[in-house]
Amino acid sequence: MLVPLAGAVALAVLLGVAAFVIFNRDHDCSGGKLALRVVAAPDIEPSLTKIANNYNKAMHSIDSKCVDVTVAKEAAARTANSLAAGKATADFWVADSSLLMESLRRTPAGKALPEPEGSIAASPVVLAAAKSAASKLSGSLTPSWTSMIAAANVANVDGPGKKVRVLALDPQKNSAGLAALLAAAGTAREAGQDKALVGALKELSGQLASDSTALLASLTVKSGTKVPVGVASEQAIYAHNAKKPEAPVVALYPEEGTLSLDYPVTILTKEPATLKAAADFKQALSTDSATKILRDAGFRSADGKAGSVLTKEKGFTPETPQALPAPDGATVARMVQTWSRLNLGTRMLTLLDVSGTMALPVPGTGMTRMQAISKIATEGLGLFPADSEVGVWAFSTHMNGRGKDWREVVPVGPLSESIDGTLRKELLAKQLTTIQAKATGDTGLNDTLKAAYTEMTKTYKQDKINTLLILTDGAGNDDPDGGIKNPAILQFLKDTYDPKRPVSILLIAFGPDAASGKQQMDALAKATGGEAYIAKNILQVRDFFLQGMERRLCSPNCDG
User: Which ranges carry the VWFA domain (predicted)?
Assistant: First the structure.
């Protein structure tokens, strides 16, 4: 009996040795470990860590060394900045969006960045609302980028923004925010809504969340009678709900289509052995087991197919959403620049005409020109955020002693700053509603303009858009005591204007005399890269202010 048993043991030993030899031929770790450092966007890092752990257990061998993959999480924008500065230490990068890569590639430092080598997952960028509040959106907001713009447009005071508060992700820090911005901008331009887009961007710049976690949590916080609506990736919504919050969030898919986060792989290492390890790990990311891990975490596969967790019962649409055309690198770079310029602070001095003609009535309105202009100023100033620096001068003739045609009403400074116990914003509103026309005053515009333009040039702030706003009834310069003539003030502006430190003139006129002075108004504004408008009614002023903001995007080359 012992002989057969001994033979069986010997056979088992021989088979074990053979298996060991065969196994180690493909998994030879005799040379130690070969480190592969992976950095990934925070949303996909947990899934990649699971995949990496399985990969490490399988003992993948490169040149007699077992690959040891470690995964660190880092915001894609931060990794991009490190790469641009030449300080990145990772071998293998999984960003959350090719859009970010395109933006980086347009910079001098980004030109040397290796090309991405395909995507490993996808997650469409969608609108989001608390499940309990989603039904209240019916009739006030359809799931679309166009509706979102209308609701966020600061100048559309009677639009859906009365019932909806739109929240956004900072596109300079968050790829889903950048994708939403590009999707909204593209559909707005298709629909001819450029001014509405500017108004929406200005409003959204004050409603930013740093990341999806903060934004989705805020959707469940009551905001008076307004329903909060935000933007996020589909996967972020799934991850939020997976934590079983008291108030889950649902995805609202834009009817025009959307852009998706596509999680591109970029191999950064140049070391030969590590390059082999990176290629091997990249291949492992496309296996069925890796794909299942990603889908189970709420991601779609790279072709847009959803896994079993994205169900209608959980507030998702399993079908692949319609895709908007992917913007090219130039479009992405322009939008990033647009956002940056629009969100530069505002520094503005308003010159308010209080000459005698301002006391005349405006037919059909029940207001004097002074009241109408003051209402225009109040409407316009209401479009600017609290960190804007604003001031007002009144002008006519002999306003502060003989020969001086202007008087400082409120000095330029932050709207949120207190002046003798009163916020500047409140002080401006009070002064604008109580200011009176000077019955015997003429219109010393040119002398005032020279003094104001000199002051704004001297106190120029590099981090702000510096603007001189003129509100008048359009009578032009009427100074019987002399002063600067029209040709001289134009020459002064042309000589003083510096495109590297631009102070632009925005001129808005309201009244029957405005049309006759339009040529000179245009000349004054154009000399500084600005614009002149004639308002036919009070409501038009919102559009004029937005058009003035639009010029920030092209300044100082708007007309050339």
Answer: 347-549
Would you state the torsion angle of the CA atoms of residues 109, 115, 119, 120, taken in this order, to the nearest 10 degrees? -80
Q: What is the DSSP string of 184-234?
A: HHHHHHHTT-HHHHHHHHHHHTTSEESSHHHHHHHTTS-BTTBEEEEEEEH
**What is the length of the chain?**
560
Say whether pLDDT at 133 is over 90.
Answer: no
Q: Is the predicted pLDDT of residue 14 greater than 50, yes or no? A: no
Chain-centre distance for alpha carbon 87:
26
At 139, the amino acid letter reads G
From the CA atom positions of the chain, what is the Rg in Å? Answer: 31
pTM (global) more than 0.85: no
Element (H, E) at 26: helix 2-26
Q: 138-157, pLDDT tens digit by residue?
A: 767 889 999 898 888 876 76
CA distance 160 to 207: 16
Angle made by CA atoms 205, 210, 212, in degrees to the nearest 5: 110
Structure tokens at 415: 């709207």
- Give residues with Cβ within 8 angstroms of 151, minimum separation 6: 140, 141, 159, 160, 161, 164, 166, 229
Beta bridge pairs of residue 229? 166
User: What does each C-alpha distance from 524 to 491, 493, 521, 559 come to in angstroms?
Assistant: 10, 8, 5, 14
**CA–centroid distance for 335 within its chain:** 8
